[in-house]
Amino acid sequence: MNNPAFSKVLIANRGEIACRVIRTLDAMGIASAAVHHPAEAAARHVRMAGEAVAIHGDTPVAAYLDGAQIIAAAKATGAEAIHPGYGFLSENAGFAQAVIEAGLTFIGPDHATIALMGDKISARTFAAAIGVPVAPSVLPTEDLADFTARAGKIGFPLLIKAAAGGGGKGMIIVRHADELQAAATRAASEALRYFRDGRIYAETYVDAPRHIEVQVLGDGEGGVIHLHERECSVQRRFQKIIEEAPAPDLPPSLREEICAAALRIAMAARYRNAGTVEFILGADGRFFFLEMNTRLQVEHPVTEMITGIDLVRAQIEIAAGAALPAALPAPRISGHAIECRICAEDPARDFLPESGRIGRLAFPTAPWLRFEHGLTEGQAITADFDPMLAKLVSHGPDRETAINRMIEALKQLTLLGVTTNIDYLIRVLDHPAFRAGDLHTGFVSAHGAALALPPTGRQARDHAAILAALGCREFAELVFATPEPYASMGFWRN
Amino acid sequence: MDRLQSTISVSSEAFRRHDAHNRRLVAELRARQEAARHQRPARDLERLARQKKMPARQRIEKLLDPGTPFLELSTLAANMAYGGEAPSASSIVGIGVVAGREVMIRADDPTVKGGAWYPLTMKKIVRALDIAMENRLPVIHLCDSAGGFLPLQSELFPDKYVGGRIFRNQSLLSKMGVKQLALVFGHCTAGGAYIPGLSDYSVIVRGSGAVFLGGPPLVKAATGEEVTVEELGGAEMHTSVSGTCDWPADNEEHAIALGREIVAQWDRPKKWEAQWQAPEPPLHDPTELYGIIPDDIKTSFDMREVIARIVDGSRFHEYKPNYGTTLVCGFAHIWGFKVGILANNGVLFNDSSIKGAHFIELCDQNNTPLVFLQNITGYMVGREYERRGITKDGAKMIMAQTCSKVPKFTVMCNGSFGAGNYGMCGRAFDGRFLFTWPNSQIGVMGGEQAAKTLAEVKINQIRRNGGDVDPQEIEALISQTRAAYQQQLSAYYSTSELWDDGLLDPVDTRNALGIAISVSLNAPIGEPGYGVFRF
Amino acid sequence: MPFTLLLDGEPCEIEILARQPRLLLAVNGRTYLVEPKAGDGMVRIDGETVAFARAEIGETQFLRIAGRTHVAQLARQGGAGGGGGSGVNAVKAPMPGLVIRVHKQAGEAVVRGEAVITIESMKLQMALNAPRDGVIATLLAEEGGSFDKDAVLALLVSLEGE
User: Fold this and answer.
1) What letter would DSSP give residue A440?
2) Is residue C80 situated within a structural domain?
3) Chain C residues with CB inside 8 Å of B256's CB?
């Protein structure tokens, strides 16, 4: 496009994704505006943006969830469109609608599509109606007695989820009939607590499934393409930590089938903008529609690296009215890409979030690497936000090369001052099962022992102790402030 | 600078005999030091453990920077006094590094009569503080003393160089800006109370530390007042009420940590910029000194062989090598410091005396510290030498040496007899440090000569009175005199009386001198008082 | 004094064996030749170059060496250098006044800085805090009671086994 799609875009987000979007805006010659809670006034996305507006809230997260303030900020800065990133307001239909009503462009799907896909039940019904496989399930209800009766008929194992849920919260696996009652009660109460919606539903639980998702782009006029699948099976606490594209060792026919199913959904929904259709894939080759995410995914860079397409640019162009030819073939795949989510968490303590301060940040650079982050040295890492700090993405002509490049890059990645999962990710990538592509969503717990922190060798520990000692002011003074001839003489008694 | 060539043969019979002899002497020295340092009555050690106190030497070890040297002075002080009941004169003195600063450490030893001060303790402490004054060396006192040893009060209180001198020196040190820190681990009673009182900084340990002029029994006797140690002079009282001490410490370890932190605050006064180069170990093995020092004091040896095993790289720039050859003079480095060395290679003649005086003047003009390696039987006697003015030439050397303003260091390597002791900077001449090797002897003359001289006088006396000389009586006189001299000439007697700053294993000489020279450079070197006379 | 670190939670004792001509350190008795200034972010240990990155957050050091992160802290000697160890035992009145409230009773443990007593003096209320970690050994104040300047209102003792 010769003229920029918009003169200015406001990013209703923070952290790495805000920085990521600004980078594309810069490349497109579009001005950027950031929002930030006062606690983040010095954040990287604030410094990268052309301008920034402070937004307020009882908590920092509440500020980023306050649509009215954000729309006001967009108006105040003269932005013409809002990019929601992921999380926060990105899948909030009300917000999308309010943006339009404010006379701005929402860089994402129609609010009706968001609402349709945002409710798991309506999404499943929609998918089932057009012949996309859906796991046998019990529709959401608050009537627990009715729920358990019907759920028991599906058979076990069974997965109970909150109707309004996401991110693994309120999910319970039930393996036996006698656990059902208690599990349903707990799931309902958690659903109510987390999402203020006590409705739960249940579906067949696929043991050791793979998580496969398909990136789609639609122009809202029926033009839809898919950008191939991603494998996101390596998860902990029901959240992805390693994603890759393409999915390793997927039979071509199955790959085609899954991508076709995703495309069918996008087409039927007359989908506009970027979206992701998620499936679970059983060991037997059966796959079921899981949900559709009506936004940019965290793991979108792996798709970008194998297709060469800038998804954020595509989002903006579509939002500005660009059309896609109805029958565009999927772009060619080049090589293999892997993404690792760098999180402030302690793998040794069940991946519980950690807090601290970024004391030192240094990351490797190479043509085959991307380091997506919103960090600055000195920045406090608190429980205010998601523990994901950054993403490291590697590309290679084949999967093995991409893995090796990722391991090397993780070793060089220096992010000190808070406990992170960096070393853990190295162990996952180097695990024979991972290298063999033998992946499923239970990978982390199945290989728990092998992935545990191995004891360091004595010499490596001693080296660390020496460096730590030399790093202590007290010790360094003892070593370096001794005058002559005492320093040369060393320990001596007469 | 040329390296000294060694001409000794390590496989010779003489070398091996000397080696065995001197190793025996050093083993004896080590054993006596070990006993002085650690051998205590069980009840004293038990009491210490009961009071949760560390032995004094452990306190010192914890205070010092790890991996650094400690030069202990006069370990065997009082070893031949008080029936041996005051090892190290109940006080430990030495020089080391604390928080990167060279300091004098002086510690009471509570396992010797509760840390009581004997007359020789006073002498040792006064000497330590004299060293601190002469060398501007900060002092850390580790206090834990019951006070003066009362049975010997007449020897430790009234005179000039005993008790009061400690406090006089402390006051002058403070005036000179030389810092003192007192770590009060135990009691500081009576005069002892002034040690923390006159220190610039003080730390006192809760529960065990106490400072008072009179302890509870004395207070009760004097005024009838009944008072506890804590109330009278405990840590809480002194750090919050009287202000006599500055910091309270929870325990001994804490006191030491606080002490190290306090020293870390001290400035590092600029030292005298002596000529210095990167140190280099001697080329010749210092342990060969054992085979070089003879097993008989009458056997002569070449002092260059000794120098070659003390100085950096065994390098020696000899001065006037062909003149006055019984005194070896020259420049060298010890632990990097440039020094001028004077070493005896025989009796001092007129020419060697003049050469010595001349070399001292050169060093004085060159700001080069002087090291005297003594092995001297005296200035030459006899008509010929008196006619040539041996007294006058010896006087020149004594005068030059006395009036030089560079730091002087003396090592008694074998013998120190007669006026040679004076010319070669004996104890009376205010050298900064004086060390003695265990084989060495010191006296106005040797035991043999003294016995013969006295026998000669006795025989003359008997004959003058017309009596008969009884050979047995004369023989008894000779052996008595020899025995008495033997004891008083010995290095152990010398060090017991603090005529030196300690006995040294000859192999340790290089390190001891290195520290001594370094310490001496804290004090400025003044202007020379005269030019260089070519006598 | 021995220098002790907690490395990844485990104690490491480090000794300086020699400084010159080469730095020789011992870690738990094992000796290493260290060249501390091999380059930026590098030391040489026993001839082998070890690259590292370091960050210090408060009292904690984070080190990344050979693709592995270590956490180290300085182990303080009991009582020494004390965050909560040094100072005085007595909670004393800085001026004459009245006791408004007693927050801690005898026998209760307190940490340094915790309010023990609130007093009022010259129309000014102030909390008197524990000067160090410990246990209230004696409480000499009662609510409503008056006192003079420098009166000891509470006395602390150290926790045993520290």
Assistant:
1) -
2) no
3) 1, 80
